[in-house]
Design goal:
The structure holds two protein chains of two kinds. Chain A is mostly helical. Chain A has one domain. Chain A is built from four helices and no strands. In chain A, α1 runs antiparallel to α3. Chain A starts with a helix and ends in a 28-residue tail after the last helix. By secondary structure, chain B is mainly alpha-helical. Chain B has 41 helices and four strands. In chain B, the strands form two sheets. In chain B, strands 1-2 form a two-stranded antiparallel ribbon. Chain B is elongated and about 120 Å long. The N and C termini of chain B lie far apart (97 Å). The chains are: A mainly alpha, B mainly alpha. At the A-B interface, α4 of A face α36 of B.
């Protein structure tokens, strides 16, 4: 493996390590659930992403083949992480806050956690 | 099998086949029903008569079909003189009873049932007397207990009937259990379970140190069946049965089975002091006590019941004497007792039927109203009393003759005196039967105006009474069968001569004393009866009930201790037992020296291990908080999966991950309806106990695994690895083991899984009918619920993921035979894909879009797997043998096709069906708890909502 590849792999791993650490530290340090929701996003995006980039470079340099597993992992992460965060936030709202503790939503239909969804056309 | 053997086999089978008829034929009317009962009986009787001449010449007819030769059990029958005598009695009286019952049973009684039970019982009795294998004999023995239970309890509406039937079953059944033990001892002493062999080996048996235990156990069976003191009490209580049943069971069959057994076992067991003192003494006591009680019974049938007890005692005593002359007397008395006692029971039944009472104190003077019945009853009763020219006299003389020269513990007088007293009492109650029922002035206060019954009803007892007189006047007519039976019992070549006049012998004097004394006793009956009633007597029923109650209490105590309904108790018992067994095995043989060294621990693995430990300890500490416990469970599951992957078990890792995922999802759903916190249910002491058990068990399993891994042990794994590719056609050994080597196990497992799914479904059904349903209805689950139950993002993502997940499932399924994967994992992956749809859009919405019922899927899976297995039969291979071949289709690489894949498809379908059915069951709770059904896949469809402009238009 040449020096450039090694350097890139190392750099990506260090970046991922730093963000992984920041994410974990934030999870411990931050006080409220909604704040805490913020920290692990660093770990899941840049943290895991760094490892995946490192892995792709490593296998390309090592075997000459482009490895696509990592892209699939990225896809799944991008799909699942927002859903998870969304659900944690919803659960937090539903369990710990009442409707009147929140400001008015500026959208058309109010808060989805508290207000009924708008009427839906059945024919579509 | 010889021609005769086939006949014998048919005789044994006919009643059981015939038992199918009456229940059906009752629809054609009562007479047809009775005829359909009589036909198989008559056929069997005719076949028996065909065999009779050969048997009377001294031949033995045999039939043999191997049944379970490994156990020494064969369906083998033989017919000798004794068997012929009893079989003829059973079938002959069976016919008469069929006739009598046709007229006795009223229109309200289910006659088809009665005749079916009767034929079943008849078949069981026949089986006992012609079995040539003691194990087979035991089966028939227990069958008589069971079928007599049905017969005695035939009038289900009468509590006496039910209790009497239970008592008879309990007493004779437990005697039968003792007999099983005795027979097994006998079989192992002789080394064969064939009666013919056992009867030849009498000397070896009597010399064996196991003789006494075997004797006592077998006699327990015989005594309980034949109602010998102190087990006599069940017989009178069985009188709650309809009279035809009593007449059949207590004259010719059931109670004679014990006598038959003693006679049958005579060559093997008799001839020792133990035999004489146990059997003869029991018989003597029973004879006297039975006769004494009979004298003071006012119920006609109770009188006859105790007289039966007394006569059975007489037979037992004769067999107990152990002499050949006594055996002849016993055989003769068996015949005589059958004729007069069956006739008497039927007479009692007629009296009861006509006057609507069996109370002797309310009867009398029936001679004028029922002359035919009077004649039959008197003939039979005089025979029972032992009056000359009736057959009872002959065998009673022979009995007294034998008793007159029997020493008992050195005393020459004990047996003759007691035997005379027994005979005297017998005369007294027989005379009472005649004089208090038929003689005396006509009364006006019968509950029902009596008259003679129709011919059909008195025909059967009349035939028997006729036999009483014929044998009484011309006893030589019975000589043939008596000789054959007595020879079969004793194994000797006897030529007895049955005569009326024996000259002036001690027996004659004893007989005269008995008749005169009996007559005197009857004149004194009134004052004696008063004394008897005022005297304290032990009552059998309360004692029996008390004993049963005590046994029930003891059983309940044991059950309550071991099965108190707390699963922690069961687990504790099970775990402690396992640990103790393991410890016993360990301390029994010790351990060889370890042959392997420890491997180093890589730091990453150490971290994973520590996480596992921390999660486990945390779950112990926090298990009261269920959601937290569930989260920790997920961590443990994933750590274990990682451990599997690390230890080169990718199949296990895959399975573990998917099982974990499904489990956590289902548990989460279930937890929604359960309390979120487990209350502290056990006290501190119990928790310490459980902790100690857990540590011991965990430590034991841990050290066991450690011990195994430190040593090179030859296991079956090498065989599997060597043969996986060549034998099973797959390179993934785990999968080949599952679908091929241990395919049968897997087949059983998927069936269990399917059953589990169905059981959960059924339990949920029950749950929603029970008290839990009320709580569900009354709990408001909507408080902690978000208004958007089916968020758009979730719905879209699960839709996107679904095809991917299905492809992954298919991929895992297809490669399973050669790479990690297989039907089980694939089933779980697809189940997860579907679970996600259900979670995203709600159960009902998704349910509408599925085409196959999950129940069907489970059944289909089991069916596919089973058919694959059966397919091997078509090629002459054993069940579940797999075949494989390689196929080349142009666009793709060469691939393998194995029947194992079809089997795996079955596994796949069952797993999928079971998981989804569990989900369905949980969702039913949700619907029950008030969850509404959504019609749209998501709460808010940005392209589908009604805008203000549209609403205005």
């Amino acid at each position: 493996m040449n020096f450039v590849a090694e350097f890139l792999v190392s750099a990506a791993l260090i970046v991922s390590g730093i963000f992984g650490f920041v994410g974990s530290y934030g999870l411990l340090k931050l006080k409220h659930t909604l704040q805490r929701l913020h920290a692990p996003t660093k770990a899941t995006t840049l943290g895991v992403g760094g490892v995946l980039i490192a892995s792709m470079i490593f296998f390309y340099a090592d075997t000459g083949h482009i490895s696509v597993h990592e892209l699939l992992i990225t896809l799944f992460l991008f799909l699942t992480a927002p859903i998870t965060a969304n659900f944690i936030a919803k659960t937090h709202l539903a369990r710990n806050l009442r409707r009147n503790e929140l400001p008015e939503s500026t959208g058309d239909f109010g808060w989805s956690v508290y207000d009924d969804p708008p009427e839906t056309r059945l024919d579509t | 099998m010889s021609h005769e053997g086939t006949l014998l086999f048919l005789i044994a089978v006919l009643p059981f086949v015939g038992a199918l008829l009456p229940g059906l034929m009752i629809r054609a009317g009562r007479t047809v029903c009775a005829v359909s009962t009589a036909v198989p009986t008559l056929l069997a009787l005719i076949m028996l008569l065909v065999l009779a001449p050969a048997v009377l010449r001294g031949e033995v007819v045999q039939a043999n079909i191997d049944w379970l030769p490994q156990l020494g059990l064969s369906a083998s029958f033989f017919l000798d003189g004794l068997g012929l005598l009893f079989a003829a009695m059973i079938l002959g009286v069976g016919l008469l009873i069929t006739l009598y019952a046709r007229f006795y049973l009223s229109g309200d009684d289910p006659m088809g049932q009665f005749y079916t039970y009767l034929l079943l019982f008849q078949g069981a009795m026949l089986g006992i007397v012609i079995s040539d294998n003691i194990l087979l004999l035991l089966i028939f023995w227990e069958l008589t207990s069971l079928s007599s239970f049905l017969l005695i309890g035939y009038w289900k509406h009468l509590p006496e009937g039910r209790q009497g039937a239970r008592m008879a079953l309990a007493v004779t059944g437990s005697g039968g259990l003792a007999m099983i033990a005795g027979m097994l001892i006998l079989g192992s002493v002789v080394g064969s379970y064939n009666l013919t062999d056992i009867l030849q080996a009498g000397d070896a048996i009597r010399a064996s140190e196991w003789y006494l235990p075997a004797l006592i156990l077998i006699l327990l069976g015989a005594f309980t069946k034949s109602a010998q003191f102190p087990f006599h009490f069940w017989l009178p209580h069985a009188m709650a049965a309809p009279t035809p049943v009593s007449a059949y069971l207590h004259s010719a069959t059931m109670v004679k089975a014990g006598v038959f057994l003693m006679a049958r076992m005579w060559p093997a067991l008799a001839g020792t002091d133990a035999w004489f003192y146990i059997v003869a003494t029991t018989g003597l006591i029973t004879m006297v006590i039975g006769a004494l009680i009979a004298l003071f019974k006012d119920d006609l049938k109770a009188l006859l019941a105790f007289s039966t007890v007394s006569h059975l005692g007489l037979l037992t005593m004769l067999l107990g004497f152990g002499t050949e002359a006594a055996a002849v007397a016993a055989v003769f008395h068996i015949i005589n007792h059958l004729t007069f006692k069956a006739a008497l029971f039927m007479t009692a039944g007629i009296v009861d039927h006509e006057t609507h009472t069996r109370d002797i104190k309310r009867l009398g003077g029936l001679r004028h109203l029922m002359p035919v019945t009077f004649l039959i009853g008197t003939v039979a009763a005089l025979s029972m009393a032992g009056i000359p020219l009736f057959n009872g006299f002959l065998s009673k003389e022979m009995m007294l003759e034998e008793a007159s020269h029997t020493d008992w513990f050195g005393s020459p007088y004990a047996v003759p005196i007691l035997a005379t007293i027994g005979a005297l009492l017998s005369v007294a109650y027989s005379f009472r039967f005649v004089s208090h029922v038929f003689l005396g002035p006509k009364r006006e206060d019968y509950p029902n105006a009596p008259h003679d019954p129709p011919f059909g009803m008195w025909a059967a007892p009349a035939i028997l009474a006729f036999l009483v007189i014929v044998i009484g006047v011309a006893p030589f007519l019975a000589e043939g069968i008596v000789t054959a039976a007595a020879n079969a019992i004793t194994g000797a070549d006897l030529h007895p001569h049955l005569k009326i006049w024996h000259g002036v012998t001690p027996a004659l004097w004893m007989s005269i004393v008995a008749v005169l004394g009996g007559a005197v006793l009857l004149t004194l009956h009134r004052p004696l009866d008063r004394a008897w009633i005022s005297a304290p007597r032990p009552e059998a029923k309360p004692m029996f009930d008390g004993l049963v109650a005590a046994l029930v209490a003891a059983s309940r105590w044991i059950t309550d201790i071991s099965h108190n309904g707390a699963i922690s108790r069961y687990l504790a018992i099970f775990t402690i037992t396992s640990v103790l067994l393991g410890f016993a095995a360990y301390s029994g043989s010790g351990l060889a020296m370890p042959t392997r060294g420890l491997l180093g621990v890589p730091p990453v693995i150490a971290v994973g291990w520590i996480m596992l430990i921390v999660a486990t300890v945390s779950i112990v500490v926090m298990h009261h908080y269920r959601f937290r416990a569930l989260t920790l469970l997920g961590i443990i599951g994933l750590s274990i999966s990682a451990g599997f992957a690390y230890l080169s078990a990718p199949d296990l890792a895959l399975t573990q991950i998917s099982v974990e995922t499904v489990t956590i999802m289902l548990l989460l759903l279930a937890l929604h309806f359960l309390p979120k916190v487990t209350p502290k249910e056990s006290a501190i002491g119990l928790r310490i106990r459980d902790g100690i058990i857990a540590l011991a068990a965990g430590g034991g399993v841990g050290s066991l695994a450690y011990a195994f891994m430190m040593r090179d042990i030859e296991t079956i794994s090498d065989y599997h690895i060597d043969n996986s590719y060549e034998g099973g056609g797959g390179t993934n050994v785990v999968n080949v083991i599952l679908v091929d080597f241990r395919g049968y196990d897997t087949y059983g497992e998927i069936i269990v899984l399917g059953i589990a799914g169905l059981v959960i479904y059924a339990l949920m059904h029950a749950l929603l009918d029970g008290p839990a349903a009320k709580r569900l209805k009354n709990t408001d689950y909507s408080q902690d619920r978000s208004r958007d139950r089916h968020p758009l993002m979730m719905v879209v993502v699960t839709r996107v993921l679904m095809p991917i997940a299905l492809v992954v499932g298919l991929y895992i399924f297809l490669r399973g035979h050669n790479q990690p994967g297989g039907g089980f994992v694939a089933g779980l992956v697809v189940a997860i894909a579907l679970l996600m749809q259900y979670m995203a859009s709600g159960f009902a919405w998704t349910q509408e879009r599925k085409k196959i019922e999950y129940h069907t899927m489970i059944g289909l899976g089991v069916l596919v797997a089973g058919l694959t297995g059966i397919g091997a039969w078509l090629l002459g291979q054993p069940f579940l043998t797999s075949a494989y071949t390689y196929v080349h289709l142009p666009p793709i690489e060469e691939f393998e096709l194995a029947t194992a894949m079809l089997f795996d498809l079955g596994v796949f379908l069952t797993v999928l069906g079971a998981v989804m059915l569990m989900l369905y069951s949980l969702s039913r709770i949700a619907r029950f708890a008030g969850e509404t059904v959504n019609v749209t896949p998501m709460d808010y469809d940005p392209g589908g909502y009604v805008t203000d402009e549209e609403a205005e238009r």
